[in-house]
């Protein structure tokens, strides 16, 4: 990622709907979400999502 995306007020935008479904699926089941996408960090504080960051093998 080249930088953090912000709105005109300098705030990060809310997480997208496409991020919500897998996040809440993991939260409801009590399992961590494996991802390379930092956008899921919003769910860590807001809803208690447990993230595991993977790395690229290429």
Keywords:
10% strand, two-stranded parallel ribbon, disordered N terminus, alpha+beta, 2 helices
Written account of the structure:
- The chain has 2 helices and 2 strands.
- The protein has a domain at 17-53.
- The protein has helices at residues 17-29, 41-47; strands at 33-35, 51-53.
- It has 58 residues and is of the alpha+beta class.
- It has a two-stranded parallel sheet.
- The radius of gyration is 12 Å and the shape is globular.
- The protein starts with 16 loop residues before the first helix and ends in a 5-residue tail after the last strand.
- Helices cover 34% and strands 10% of the residues.
Summarize the amount of helix as a percent range. 25-40%
Order of helices and strands: HEHE
Rounded Rg: 12 Å
Overall outline? globular
- Give the strand line-up of the largest sheet: 1-2
Number of helices: 2
Average residue pLDDT: 76
Tell me about the biggest sheet? 2 strands, parallel
Q: How much of the sequence is in beta strands?
A: 5-15%
Helix vs. strand class: alpha+beta
Low-pLDDT regions: 1-6
Q: Please give the number of β-strands.
A: 2
Distance between the termini: 16 Å
């Amino acid at each position: 990622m080249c930088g953090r995306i912000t709105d005109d007020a300098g705030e990060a935008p809310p997480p997208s709907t496409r991020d919500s479904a897998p996040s809440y699926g993991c939260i409801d089941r009590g399992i961590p979400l494996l991802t390379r996408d930092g956008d899921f960090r919003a769910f860590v504080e807001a809803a208690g999502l447990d993230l595991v960051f993977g790395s690229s093998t290429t």
